[in-house]
Amino acid sequence: MKHGRVVLKGNSLPNLYLVGFMGTGKSSMGKRLAARFNLRFIDSDEEIEKSSGMSIKDIFAKFGEEKFREMERDFIENGHPKTGCVVSCGGGLVCRDGMPELVKSKGVSIVLFAEPEVIFKRVSLSKTRPLLNVENPMQRICELLDKRSKYYNRSGICVSSSGNPNDVEERLARIYAGRVKNMLKRGQD
Ligand SMILES: Nc1ncnc2c1ncn2[C@@H]1O[C@H](COP(=O)(O)OP(=O)(O)O)[C@@H](O)[C@H]1O
Ligand SMILES: O=C(O)C1=C[C@@H](OP(=O)(O)O)[C@@H](O)[C@H](O)C1
Ligand SMILES: [Mg+2]
């Protein structure tokens, strides 16, 4: 990324955190943005699976949701590089007291959102999300969105991911680049 006459290397750029409900596109947009800005892509779910040697599904089944939330907090506190990454955060990662503020303190945080119908369509193709393995996933999506919106609203600037993936990527890229430039300008004052 260019700033004045200085070209910033990917690994010195602030981390970008993508936050939001399951199926809003955090992992897929995260990969695109990482490639675009020459950043490393990290998915909190994948990192937790690697470090625990278990799948998300098995962690939920064996230890329960609260243990998984602790693992997510550890990951944000100590489990990833401080700069140079796009971090796709699991959908419930910010949904505990203090987590929106913690994530925002680590870099640029953007919240993706989409209508329940869009989310349902996107997640119904996969069975890897234990919280939606229920009889009525649409009802569950609406209940969870209701409970979680206060956390998402505090987690950063909100961007709709309902549109075409290229448009969503452009919007996210513009916001990230703008925020980085402002941070650097402030650093020079
Ligand atoms: N803007 C979009 N338009 C259409 N499909 C999308 C869009 N963003 C993501 N998807 C698709 O939705 C599904 C869930 O996306 P994913 O990135 O895994 O979401 P998350 O990580 O937020 O759970 C994937 O199949 C992905 O390709
Ligand atoms: O919303 C949630 O509580 C969860 C979202 C999932 O990640 P994605 O948002 O990437 O699907 C994963 O962390 C786990 O199944 C729990
Ligand atoms: Mg994901």
From TrEMBL:
<feature type="binding site">
    <location>
        <position position="148"/>
    </location>
    <ligand>
        <name>substrate</name>
    </ligand>
</feature>
<keyword id="KW-0057">Aromatic amino acid biosynthesis</keyword>
<feature type="binding site">
    <location>
        <position position="91"/>
    </location>
    <ligand>
        <name>substrate</name>
    </ligand>
</feature>
<keyword id="KW-0479">Metal-binding</keyword>
<comment type="function">
    <text>Catalyzes the specific phosphorylation of the 3-hydroxyl group of shikimic acid using ATP as a cosubstrate.</text>
</comment>
<keyword id="KW-0460">Magnesium</keyword>
<keyword id="KW-0028">Amino-acid biosynthesis</keyword>
<keyword id="KW-0808">Transferase</keyword>
<dbReference type="Pfam" id="PF01202">
    <property type="entry name" value="SKI"/>
</dbReference>
<dbReference type="InterPro" id="IPR031322">
    <property type="entry name" value="Shikimate/glucono_kinase"/>
</dbReference>
<comment type="subunit">
    <text>Monomer.</text>
</comment>
<feature type="binding site">
    <location>
        <position position="69"/>
    </location>
    <ligand>
        <name>substrate</name>
    </ligand>
</feature>
<feature type="binding site">
    <location>
        <position position="27"/>
    </location>
    <ligand>
        <name>Mg(2+)</name>
    </ligand>
</feature>
<dbReference type="InterPro" id="IPR023000">
    <property type="entry name" value="Shikimate_kinase_CS"/>
</dbReference>
<feature type="binding site">
    <location>
        <position position="45"/>
    </location>
    <ligand>
        <name>substrate</name>
    </ligand>
</feature>
<comment type="pathway">
    <text>Metabolic intermediate biosynthesis; chorismate biosynthesis; chorismate from D-erythrose 4-phosphate and phosphoenolpyruvate: step 5/7.</text>
</comment>
<comment type="similarity">
    <text>Belongs to the shikimate kinase family.</text>
</comment>
<keyword id="KW-0963">Cytoplasm</keyword>
<feature type="binding site">
    <location>
        <begin position="23"/>
        <end position="28"/>
    </location>
    <ligand>
        <name>ATP</name>
    </ligand>
</feature>
<protein>
    <recommendedName>
        <fullName>Shikimate kinase</fullName>
        <ecNumber>2.7.1.71</ecNumber>
    </recommendedName>
</protein>
<keyword id="KW-0418">Kinase</keyword>
<dbReference type="InterPro" id="IPR000623">
    <property type="entry name" value="Shikimate_kinase/TSH1"/>
</dbReference>
<dbReference type="InterPro" id="IPR027417">
    <property type="entry name" value="P-loop_NTPase"/>
</dbReference>
<keyword id="KW-0067">ATP-binding</keyword>
<keyword id="KW-0547">Nucleotide-binding</keyword>
<dbReference type="GO" id="GO:0016301">
    <property type="term" value="F:kinase activity"/>
</dbReference>
<feature type="binding site">
    <location>
        <position position="129"/>
    </location>
    <ligand>
        <name>ATP</name>
    </ligand>
</feature>
